Structures are given as structure tokens and as C-alpha cells.
Amino acid sequence: MERKELTEPERSNHVYGVDFKGWFNTQDGERYDSLTVSDLHSRFLLKAEALPQATTRWTMRAFRNMFREYGLPEIIRVDNGAPFASMGAGGLSRLSVWWITLGIEVQFSRPGCPQDNGSHERMHRTMKAECCRKASVHMRAQQQRFDRWRKEFNCERPHEGIGMQLPAELYQPSVRRLDESIKIPLYDLGVETRKVSQSGFIAHNKRQCFVGEAFSGMEVSVDEAQKPGLTLVCFANVKLGWLENSPNARLRPTAYAERWESKTCNNEGRS
């Protein structure tokens, strides 16, 4: 995965911090995972939701509801865990691919560096202490507790990081509304693309090459002009990897091009 420099938020809906604060049990034995989303500029907590599971399905459903209420951000910042990221091409998951199709940039924090989402992590510690240590009777009661606490956090508690103002005083809903019927162009005109099959393959040099099931039904770009003997595969502006222009090609990590060039130069030197 190519890790981009993290963006410093400058306005509402510029950068959202997203994470799960682990899982907990209610008194009746139900397990829940705590999904949280905050606007990193205003510190406004957009979502604190108890989900039955931290899966793509449940998380995507929660985000759809949130986007309908508040609109879309420019950037979402997440860690490298599921369902936000994967071990596949570009580190993208089905969830982060969906965000990109909505015109949202996805930024991944550095592994083992919670300070990359510092204000969000501090909010997590407070939320856990005040909402999660004592088990609620059931899931509905836990969600009611989250809702009360989120309102207090946004509307009644001044925050030092924003000059002792209230998050609700600074935050404004996004003007970018959720409309999944509008297909945002991911590539410039003239860029060569390949449709990814439902099983995650694209056609390359008369063969089927696997790029990842996270991209099923999507189009990826292919560029043979950047490196001799290699084809660069991208999803939107995310580099997924390189394909050798050979019958046995498979997708290689983005750093592979440097090793390929070194190997090619060495072979030419010996010829």
C-alpha cells in the first residue's frame, strides 16, 4: 500500500476520523461493536453506533444513513484493519472502494500510530469510560446511551483543541449530498480501463489476472507506458500494482517496479 501524507483538516467535512472502539457485551449477552465517526476540524461526533458486527454490510449501512443526514466528506481517515482496509491490492476493501466511488479520498494511518487520529482516539477513551464500562441492559439501551452522550459531547462540552468552543458551534453539514445514482468519473477521458469480473479478475494479454474481489464490477485503469515490460494497474488514483507483460503475469506490489528495473538492468549488463 502506498501511504499518502495525512491531510490537516481546515474546515467542516474536510477530514472524517473513523474507527471501531472494540466490542462489548450487554447484560442480556448481546455483543456489539462501537462504530464512531468524527469531523476532525470541528471535533463534531457524527456517529457513535452499536453495530451487531463490524462487517462491511453493517458498516456500509451505517455510513449510508450518516451520509444521508450530514452529506459527504472530502477525506476519510481510517486505520489498517477490517472492514476499512485489506491485505489485498492497494490495501483497499469493498468498503473503502465504495467510498472512493462516492468521490471520497481514503487515507490510511500508519500502523501502530494512533496519534495519526489523535483527537478521535482521545474521544474514544472518554466514550469507553462513560458509555461502555458498565454494561447496558440490551442493545437498544446501549444505543440510547450513545445518543445521549453524543449530544452532550457535541452541544455541552467545550473542547480545548478548538479554543474551548463547542463542536456543534463549529460544524456545518456538507453541501455534497449522497446520490448513488450519479456515477462520478474515476478516470480522465482516454485512459484505458478494464472491467473487473465478479470474481476479481481482469483480462490482460489474453489471460485472466486477479486484482481483487473488492473491485468486482468496477473498472481499473491499465497503463503500459510508465515502465517497459510492466503494466500499472490503478483504481481511481490508488496504485494497485504492476503486471508483467508476460503469459504468466500476476499483480505485483507497487514497489515491484524498482526491483524489476534493477533485474532488467543487470540482465542487460550481462548480455
From TrEMBL:
This is Transposase family protein. Pfam families: rve_3 (PF13683). InterPro entries: Integrase_cat-core, RNaseH-like_sf, RNaseH_sf. GO terms for molecular function: nucleic acid binding. It comes from Oceaniferula flava. GO terms for biological process: DNA integration. Residues 5-175 form the Integrase catalytic domain.
